[in-house]
C-alpha cells in the first residue's frame, strides 16, 4: 500500500471522522479562548481603574505550576502546556498594559 485511499480518490471515512473531531475541538478552543479574553479584558480594565499593576508574577507562577500538574495528570507534555499558558499570559499582560495606557 504505497498511497492512501484519499490520494486514490476514495474518501477515507476513518480519517474524515478524526478530522471532524479535530475541527470540533479547534472550534471549542477558539470559543474558550475568546471567553477567557473577554474576562481578562474586564480584569485589565479593573486593574487600570484601581491602579493595580498589569502583571502579577506570583499568580503567574502559581498558574503555571497548576497547569503543569493538570497537564501531567492529563498525559499532556507539561513543557508544551507551560509554553501555551505563557503565550496567553503575555498576551493578557499586553492587553492590561494597553488598558492602563502604557
Q: What report would you give on this structure?
A:
The chain has a single domain, classed as Chorismate mutase (Chorismate Mutase Domain, subunit A), CATH 1.20.59. Helix content is 75%, strand content 0%. The protein has three helices and no strands. It is elongated and about 60 Å long. The relative contact order is 0.11. The model has no long low-confidence stretch (mean pLDDT 90). Its EC number is 5.4.99.5. GO terms for molecular function: chorismate mutase activity. Keywords: Isomerase. One of its GO terms (biological process) is salicylic acid biosynthetic process.
Radius of gyration: 20 Å
Order of helices and strands: HHH
Provide the β-strand percentage band. under 5%
What's the CATH H-level homologous superfamily?
Chorismate mutase
- Quickly count the helices: 3
Instruction: Flag low-confidence runs.
Output: none
Number of β-strand runs: 0
Shape by Cα distribution: elongated
CATH third-tier fold name: Chorismate Mutase Domain, subunit A
- Percent range for helical residues? over 70%
**CA(first)-CA(last) distance:** 60 Å
- CATH top level assignment: Mainly Alpha
Reported for the largest beta sheet, the result is: none
Average of pLDDT: 90
Which class of secondary structure composition applies to the elements?
mainly alpha
Number of domains: 1
Organism: Croceicoccus pelagius
Keywords: Isomerase
Domain Chorismate mutase: 9-100
Protein name: chorismate mutase
